[in-house]
Amino acid sequence: MNKVLFHLLILALACMLLSCKPNKTFTERELSLIPQPQKMTLGKSSFQFNLRTQLVTESIAQKLIAAQFAELLEKSTGWKLDIVVGGDEGSNQVYFLTEPMMEPEGYTLEVSEKRIEIKAAKPAGFFYALQTLRQLLPPEIESDKRENVDWLVPVINISDQPTFKWRGFMLDVSRHFFPKEDVLRMIDNLAIHKINTLHLHLVDDQGWRIEIKKYPKLTSVGAWRVDREDKPWNSRPKQQMGEQATYGGFYTQDDIREMVTYAQSRFITIVPEIEMPAHVTSALASYPHLSCTGGPFTVLPGGIWPVTDIYCAGKDSTFLFLEDVLSEVMELFPSKYIHIGGDEATKVEWEKCPDCRKRLKVERLKNVGELQSYFIKRIEKFIHSKGRVLLGWDEIIEGGMHAEAAVMGWRGYKGGIEAANLGHDVVMTPTSDCYFDYLQGPANQEPPGIGGYVPLSKVYAFNPVPKELSAEAAKHIMGGQANLWTEYVPNIKHSEYMVFPRIAALAEALWSPKEVRNWEDFSRRIQLFMNRYDKAGINFAKSAYAVTSKANPDSYRDNPDKNQLEVSLNCELAKVEIHYTIDGSEPTNLSPVYSEPILIEHTSTLKAISLVNGQPVGKVMSQTFNINKATGKPVTYRIPMSPEYKGSSEYTLVNGIRASTNYADGEWQGWLGTNMEVVIALGQPTEIHSITVGTLKDTGNSIFLPNKMNYLVSSDGVKFDKVAEVPSTRDEKDSISGNTQLKDFAASFGPVTTSYVKVIASIGSTTEKKDTWLFVDEIVVE
After folding, report:
1. Fewer CB atoms < 10 Å away: N or C end of the chain?
2. 166-543 in CATH: which number?
3. Mean pLDDT lowest for which of 12-21, 515-524, 753-762?
4. Residue 707 in contact with residue 727, Cβ under 8 Å?
5. Phi, psi for residue 48 in degrees, rounded to 5
């Protein structure tokens, strides 16, 4: 064989293996873009990256963005792609082209077999286009090691821009300190979701986290607390005389500059929060003269409520200190907005303070509420003088604010609505939709948390523009934000569990127009997207795969003569296969597949789990249904429950279901500042010998055990005789332990025949207990 023939043969083989090989055509079900683009048209075939692919840019700014993408690809491929500034159009390129008329964060992405073209008006648009391109590539692009896959991108045309300009995430680094490297990691993981604002909560009672040159004690003292990490958050004793404060940390000003620059390169603005006038024990421990009392103070190791030690509003030295601090902060953070907190200020010390009373008189203020307004307005004037905009929690609008001040609406939607109607720009971040410290799955399957319930689907349904707003007022809604308070989140891995995948749902709620959003489709895409989390080493939660059970209250109404409970199973994610057992055994892929409600006719333990591709995902749900003599019987409420916590139905107390440690799981009924008294009609004379009532203690949410439980019986429903009394022990009743606790009040007695059972839970003096809750979930009569 001559040399010419040999080279032709080699060339033909290469053609067969490479260019002659037909590229794959993708289907939409294989794509997992999050957030969903505004417009997308999928074509046939695909573009294949290889080591000769070029990134062709027009400017140094574009080159820097392209370099990030090239660096990411190099980790997983080993290829060091060429980046050319001012190169000619050609094949096997990712070509950048400025289109001045587009929106600042908008872009178009056109992928053909031969090349990729990106158009945008501003650098942010090019960056977001590359995040979309990144998501079109295999999940292995997120890996830090070489991956042997075909680096294909589907032929596709995308035109995209965000719906809201503020797409935010708040990280509380005060309650638990996150080192600089952890913050940089979080910035990277936010960037792929097109989040553009990172709000750092730098100051609170439990730690001061930013170096201020003029006041070194803020970090030498205020950044450190005694280590009580082995104790529940809400039951940590204060620092004692002689104890060393060893837990904490802070960011140097060089750290801050590095984080700000790093975030800017990923088109994320870091907004600093310097709390005032409350949540500042860390500052008062450093400089006690800033308080009304003069101290002494120590940095709090955990949750103590209320905190009455706040900045003194009567001393000019307080404002001089805060202006000095804010001046250094504004030099470090170029953010337009400076967050000053302004929430949850308990003002009892202001009432007693001579300096504050003098300020009231001089400024002609009526009360300490107006004094807080004076405080915030004075700070706002200073921030405005520096060319910045004050941002605060929705309490700052009480008493009026300068029109340019912006508001974060967190106490539901009401504060944000009021602020928008007054002409303030608003970021919506209601607890009900955006608090990522709240549980995202069944309480018995989640790590310890502060309570509340914000599952993935709830975040996805978030709309920052309430329907109550007029079109004009709605223009003031800048967007939304998720908040991660870290009382129960001690490290970056736990924070990732709380944030991902919920941040993906928030990102789509804020970026994508409602016309392209669909929960069922998002359910499909987020499951594929989790492969990226895996490759990136993100400790994401699988809580959305959790199976939950729900009893049908009509089971009892429709069949009053049968103690038969109809139970439905559900998985939050759409079209997930559920397997179950009702004999207490562990479910597998061989167990029955759930397809219709299950009938429970006797005390049983139902277990269920989600399966994907035949493999179990998440944790096994286990729910015991106690079918007893009270199950499904009518309940009369002699003392009405709170309308906020009515349980799942009129049968909540007798539906056979024991509630979880999550007070918001729908199986609890609550009474605020009053006793509980209910009567159960058994329907006919029935012999009974025991009564058990389930209760909850969650001191962090002001839920306490009753002083005692009384059980009475009657044949006519009029005259009742006591058969048992079960008291709380003093330790159980008065303990402020932060552990959430389920407590059964059980009593056995000689058999009695009765037609009615009365249960009275007593909380003691309602005057003393007016702000405390009593939660009851299940009454079992045997």
Report:
1. N
2. 3.20.20.80
3. 12-21
4. yes
5. -115, 120
What's the rounded Cα separation, in Å, for the pair 107 and 757? 68
Q: What is the pLDDT of residue 20?
A: 46
* C-alpha distances in Å from residue 392, one per residue of 28, 334, 336, 577: 42, 17, 13, 45
Out of 243, 344, 398, 732, the active site residue is 344
Mean pLDDT computed over 409-419: 95
Residue 656 CB contacts under 8 Å (≥ 6 apart), including other chains? 551, 565, 600, 603, 625, 626, 627, 628, 631, 632, 778
Between CA 587 and CA 607 the distance in angstroms is 7
From CA 192, how far away is CA 127, in angstroms rounded? 10
The CB density around residue 319, as the number of other CB atoms within 10 Å, is 17
For residue 427, CA distances in Å to 168, 263, 503 come to 9, 20, 16
Structure tokens at 81: 């792609």
Range with the poorest average pLDDT among 239-253, 334-348, 545-559, 642-656: 545-559
The mean of the pLDDT values for the chain is 92
Average pLDDT over residues 68-82: 96
pLDDT band at 255, cuts 50/70/90? very high
The answer on pLDDT for 767 being more than 70 is no
Contacts of 609 (CB under 8 A, 6+ apart): 547, 578, 579, 580, 587, 616, 617, 618, 619, 620, 621
Q: Which of 34, 350, 396 is CA-nearest to residue 193?
A: 34
Confidence band for 503, pLDDT divided at 50, 70 and 90: very high
The fold for domain 20-160 equals Chitobiase; domain 2 (3.30.379)
**In the predicted model, is pLDDT for residue 71 greater than 70?**
yes
Helix boundaries (H) for 456-501:
456-460, 471-474, 492-499
| Dist. CA 768–CA 111, nearest whole Å | 69
Non-local CB neighbours of 5 within 8 Å, separated by 6+ positions: none
**Fold classified for 546-625:** Immunoglobulin-like (2.60.40)
Of 503, 614, 531, 458, the C-alpha closest to 138 is 531
Q: Where are the domains of the chain?
A: 20-160, 166-543, 546-625, 635-781
From the candidates 279, 339, 424, 476, give the one annotated as an active-site residue: 279
What is this structure's pTM? Answer: 0.89
* Residues 6 or more apart whose Cβ sits within 8 Å of residue 13: none
Q: Return the number of other C-beta atoms located less than 10 Å from residue 299's C-beta.
A: 27
What percent of the chain clears pLDDT 90, i.e. is strictly above it?
A: 81
Eight-class DSSP state of 646:
B
Taking the CA atoms of 22, 25, 30 and 36 in sequence, report the sign of the dihedral they define.
Answer: positive
> Is 204 annotated as catalytic?
yes
DSSP class per residue in 222-285:
TTEE---TTS-GGGPPPPPTT----EE--B-HHHHHHHHHHHHHTT-EEEEEEEESSS-HHHHH
pLDDT of residue 6: 52
Which among 460, 462, 472, 477 is positioned nearest to 417, based on CA atoms?
477
- Whether 521 is a known active-site residue: answer no
CATH number for region 635-781: 2.60.120.260
**Interval 127-163: pLDDT, tens:** 999 999 999 999 999 999 998 999 999 999 999 999 9
What pLDDT band is residue 262 in, cutting at 50, 70 and 90? very high
Rounded Cα distance, 159 and 155, in Å: 14
Identified catalytic residue from 105, 110, 172, 204: 204
